[in-house]
Specification:
The structure holds two protein chains of two kinds. Chain A has no helices and eight strands. Chain A is mainly β. Chain B is of the alpha+beta class. Chain B is built from one helix and nine strands. In chain B, the strands form two sheets. In chain B, strands 1, 3, 5, 6, 8 and 9 form a six-stranded mixed beta sheet that branches. In chain B, a hairpin with a 6-residue loop joins strand 5 (about 80-90) and strand 6 (about 95-100). The longest helix of chain B has about 35 residues, at about 5-40. Chain B is globular and about 70 Å long. The chains are: A mainly beta, B alpha+beta. The interface of A and B includes residues 30, 60, 66, 69 and 80 of A. Strand 6 (about 70-80) of chain A pairs antiparallel with strand 7 of chain B.
Chain lengths: ~110, ~150
């Protein structure tokens, strides 16, 4: 089971732009590699990443085979209200991995 | 005056000619595949040069993890914001790297790490809320390719 690690600031001033950093351990098998017998290794990657903030989807991303193993992402949100921030990774096999935190906006 | 043309010179000339005719076609095929891919994502709107800045190493020793940052010179207000950024690697077996979908929040900047199979141009395209499409690109020289064998 891949383990996500996320960095979300615990507090922010209203209107402040803050960064979210997230990484998850995953091989991101691209489908381009071959095994010892010369047969292609089937693709198995995380193909979607979604961020919700206070229940609303605010950012998402579609990933392809060119994304490196143990994908790392950094992006920015504006602090509008206190609430939970949830991150979700969707695997080719249908598994969903999630992590998150919450931010207090003063 | 005596002119001598050695066999080696002739062969080198043929080789150079063949390489010259082949090379642009290969490069075009890669670029065409990327254009085609991006066209589908942007609804065929012709991208204008500008606004999009790519931050990448000029030389990537390991093509397995090449960090890239895309920054778009545009606000993130409800009236005027970056809706999407699409990143393509023109020289990879398949051009798509990632697409990012934004709402009017934060700033239009993302960082990730990608695989690059060989030396090539990496291109990022931004779709704005007014429907305009902007692009920027940068060449990355790759020492060891990262697409497996």
């Amino acid at each position: 089971m891949p383990t996500p690690r996320v960095k979300i600031p615990g507090t922010a001033a209203k209107g402040e732009v803050f960064e979210i950093k997230a990484t998850i351990d995953h091989d991101m098998e691209s489908g381009q590699r071959k095994n010892k017998e010369g047969k292609p290794i089937p693709r198995k990657i995380i193909n979607k990443f979604v961020c919700t903030y206070a229940g609303k989807e605010v950012f998402s991303s579609d990933w392809h085979g060119a994304i490196s193993a143990n994908p790392y992402i950094s992006f920015f949100l504006t602090a509008t209200e206190s609430g939970p921030i949830e991150l979700k990774w969707v695997d080719d096999d249908g598994s969903v991995y999630s992590a998150g935190g919450s931010i207090t906006v003063a | 005056m005596k002119t001598t043309v050695s066999r080696r010179t002739v062969l080198a000339g043929i080789g150079a000619g063949a390489a010259a005719t082949l090379a642009p076609r290969l490069a075009l095929a890669d670029k065409a595949a990327a254009d085609d891919y991006l066209g589908k994502l942007t609804g065929g709107v012709a991208p204008k040069e500008g606004k999009v800045k790519l931050k990448l190493p000029q030389i990537a020793e390991n093509g397995n993890t090449v960090q890239f940052t895309v920054v778009v010179d545009n606000p993130m207000t409800a009236e005027n914001y970056v809706k999407a950024i699409h990143v393509v690697a023109e020289g990879n077996p398949s051009p798509g790297v990632a697409s990012f979908h934004f709402t009017p929040t934060g700033k239009p900047e993302i960082t990730m790490r990608m695989r690059l199979g060989k030396t090539q141009d990496v291109r990022a395209v931004a779709v704005l809320s007014d429907g305009s499409v902007w692009q920027g690109s940068q060449e990355v020289k790759v020492t060891i390719g990262g697409c497996g064998g």
